[in-house]
Amino acid sequence: MKSIYQFTLEDMIEEFIEINEKKFRASQVFEWIYRKGVYSFDNMNNLSKDLRAKLNEHYLCSLLTMKEKQESKDGTIKYLFELEDGGLIETVLMVHDYGKSLCVTSQLGCNMGCSFCASGLLKKQRNLSTSEMVLQVLTVQEDIQDRISHVVVMGTGEPFDNYEQVMKFVYIINHAKGLAIGARHITISTCGLVDKIEQFSNEGLQVNLAISLHAPNNDIRNQLMPINRKYSMEVLRDALKKYIEKTNRRVTFEYILLGGVNDSLAQARQLAHYMRGLNAYVNLIPYNSVDESGFHQSTKASIQAFKDELLRLRINATLRKEHGSDIDGACGQLRAKRVGGVHHGNR
Ligand code: SAH
Fold this sequence. Notes:
The chain has helices spanning 9-18, 23-34, 49-58, 130-144, 163-174, 194-201, 218-224, 227-230, 233-247, 265-275, 300-312, and strands at 2-3, 59-60, 65-71, 77-82, 88-96, 99-103, 107-108, 126-127, 150-153, 186-190, 208-212, 251-257, 280-286, 317-319, 338-339, 342-343. With 347 residues, the protein is an alpha/beta fold. The protein binds S-adenosyl-L-homocysteine. S-adenosyl-L-homocysteine binds next to β10 and β12.
């Protein structure tokens, strides 16, 4: 059965025409779901009984199954959801002073193979569908009885390796008659799939782009991120330059500080050199420990020195606040610990 959450409003209208229903019925259903937060056709009380029966027959309308929910001291909540086929995914809610932001998963597992990241320990099983991403937002909103104001596609998976469905997801949550999450409140993070960055620059969207860079040169990046052997840092830089020229948007670089690997002052200068002339800024991320990886966090002093060096060279840099590290909900710590009921956990 099709999920009702896979449709943009335009798709839903077409779909309704196919099942011999009026266009405005599609708008009504869209509104029930995204405006009123009603997740059962039977409760959509301005629809006729017949129509409700027809919808039940054709489409799935239920929210995701919540298997587990862990709350951190800082208010972060990590959810473990079960998908229709039994696949398990994690979604993280973060509470900020400016609103509530949701870290959405885009794939079941990940094939990018970054050496420091736990999310990639499970190889990609499949892409998530548009509806499975939309449902992460709706299910969490229902659970907290509050609105999600920001979405970051930074959970497990490489969003640009699931390009079409991620774009449709963005379109649905951004739609003015739907959740109306502002494009500037949506961020997609990629490890740097250059062909997709180019495609993304043609979408005409105001959505933010973040690049997981994590290294100041190819030698180090090749070791940390296999994708760099396909698209070197120079190729990536060219693509970003074009993206920025075309969209007039600023790019964010994510840079995890790994003690003794990429956190020296000389490396800060190399990073500054790489970024020179790009409308970009760096978000420095303290490394969150992942038992298997063998990396460790930079000291507080080296983190500060690295940041100061960038600022001295007039490169915009901020230090990312950690969320939910006590529940393994922080960056790179997401992983479905149990697959098919078997413990594959690291503790
Ligand atoms: N595949 C996409 C989306 C995932 S975003 C991407 O690479 O951008 C998740 C972010 O957390 C990425 O920037 C990733 O590099 C970072 N990350 C991974 N492991 C981490 C760790 N152990 N500590 C801190 N950040 C980590």
